[in-house]
Amino acid sequence: MKHPDEAPTVSASERISQRIEELGDWRGATLARMRRLIHDADPAVVEEWKWRGTPVWSHGGILCTGESYQKVVKLTFAKGASLEDPAQLFNASLDGNVRRAIDIAEGEEVDAAAFRALIGAAVALNAAPRKAKPSK
Fold first, then answer.
1. Number of structural domains, the chain?
2. Angular region, 116: left φ>0, alpha ψ -120 to 50, beta rest
3. Cβ-count burial of 74 within 10 angstroms (0-12 exposed, 13-18 middle, 19+ buried)?
4. Residue 19, in any domain of the structure
5. What CATH code is carried by the domain that includes residue 105?
6. Among 14, 20, 21, 74, which residue's Cα sits nearest to residue 47?
7. Can you state the angle between helices 26-41 and 112-127, rounded to 10 degrees?
8. Is 135 inside a domain boundary?
9. Predicted confidence pLDDT, tens digits, the chain (136 residues)
10. Domain contains 121
C-alpha cells in the first residue's frame, strides 16, 4: 500500500518522454526519432530507465542505451562488437571488445532501414543460445 505522501511512480517510458521534452532541441528530436525506429524494428522492446537517468531499450537483455551530450546523441549497443554492421553505422567505441556506439551530431541522419536492421540483429543475438564457457 502506498503512503499518501509518496509521489506517483513514473514509468520508464514516461521518463524517456520527459527527457526528450526537456532536451527541447535537435538532441530531443534525434532521440525521439531513434526511439521510434527502435519500436518500429521491435514492437516488443522494453523501455527502461537505468543508471540515474539513462534511457535503455531491452529485449531478452539490453539492446542499446540512448544518451544525450552537448554535441552528440549516443546510442550504445551492449553487444555491438558481435553485430554485423554492413552500413557501418557504428562510429564510436570501436576499439572495445563488447560495445559499439553510434554518435549522431546535429544535422546528421542515420539510415533508418540500416538502423532497424541493427536493432533486429541485436534482438536476435540476445535470443540466441549462449555458448558455454570453456572449463579451465
1. 1
2. alpha
3. middle
4. yes
5. 3.90.1150.200
6. 14
7. 50
8. no
9. 555 555 568 899 999 999 999 998 999 999 999 999 999 999 999 999 998 889 999 999 999 999 999 999 999 999 999 999 999 999 998 888 899 999 999 999 999 999 999 999 999 999 988 776 666 6
10. yes
